[in-house]
Amino acid sequence: MGFVALVLAVAWAVQLLLGFGVGGLLVALVIAGGGAAAAYWKSDAVALAMSHARPADPTTFARLHNLVEGLCIAAGLPKPRIYVIDDVAPNAFATGRNPRHAAVAVTTGLLDKLNRIELEGVLAHELSHIKNYDILVSTLAVTLVGVVALLADFSLRFMWWGGPRHRDDNRAGGGGPAAALAVVGFVLLLVAPLVAKVMQAAVSRRREALADVSGVALTRYPPGLISALEKLRDDTTVVHSSSRATAHLWVESPLARTPEEGRLSRLNRLFDTHPPLEERIQALKEL
């Protein structure tokens, strides 16, 4: 509801500043809705392609398939498509629009560095995202953030190049309440993408904490996921094929969070999509 309110506020600011009227606003909403629908249906394919994931061969990755099948039986889920990413950093993510159209991807680093019990804990975490429909929530969040950013960017660029030529300057009023509203709308366009990213991060952090607890409930063995998260905490490698657009999907943020891990660590922490690993580990130890 907060995201919808923000989108409506940005649309109001665009209409106020550019003077396109109701018709222009409806066209913008139709285009945004079409983009949202396309993202909804193809979000998993895009995320997997961006991560350079390839289908996991059932023979080569028999242990991985075996663990996923056992957890799916316990959780009452259809088996998702399984992918592998050639990367030394231990990490994994789930994507898709619902349990019947879902996929789980793991890095080769995760398979190499975690034992069977730890790997089961991570996979249970990712399958919990699918069962809790977190993958749908995340997809909608990303889509709405994109709508806000596109509307704001288009409007600011349009205003920079002079705005609509047909705009009635007398209608703007030149001052008073109309000018004040125009200033409010302009400020809203500037801060809306930042607010949207903060809201997306907040949603993602809550869903990560929920998936930790749900994953432990599935395996009934908290030490497995605790040990896995401790290994992820101590590992300083980052996923090379990650991006800010898909960072919220991974079991641990794939972006650099310390100067030792890479550049822009301070900016990554500002928009962190995951709770600190120490907090997650401590919460699981209290179960």
What does this 3D model show about the protein?
There is one protein chain. By secondary structure, this protein is an alpha+beta fold. The protein has two domains: 2-42 and 148-191, no CATH class; 45-136 and 201-285, Metalloproteases ("zincins"), catalytic domain (Zincin-like). It has eleven helices and four strands. Strands 1-2-4-3 form a four-stranded mixed beta sheet, with helices on both faces. Strand 3 and strand 4 (101-107) form a beta hairpin. Helix 1 (2-18) packs across helix 2 and helix 9 runs antiparallel to helix 11. The longest helix has 44 residues, at 176-219. The protein is elongated and about 60 Å long.
Give the SSE map.
Layout: H1 2-18, H2 21-50, E1 54-55, H3 62-75, E2 81-85, E3 92-98, E4 101-107, H4 108-113, H5 116-131, H6 134-160, H7 169-172, H8 176-219, H9 222-234, H10 265-270, H11 277-285
Parallel strand pairs: 2-4
Antiparallel strand pairs: 1-2, 3-4
List low-confidence stretches.
165-174
Number of helical segments with 4 or more residues: 11
CATH structural fold name of the largest domain: Zincin-like
What sort of overall outline do the alpha carbons produce when their principal axes are compared? elongated
Helix % is 55-70%
- Radius of gyration, rounded? 22 Å
What average pLDDT do the residues reach?
78
Estimate nothing, just give the exact number of structural domains.
2
| Distance from first to last alpha carbon | 32 Å
Reported for the largest beta sheet, the result is: 4 strands, mixed
Widest beta sheet: strand line-up? 1-2-4-3
What is the strand content? 5-15%
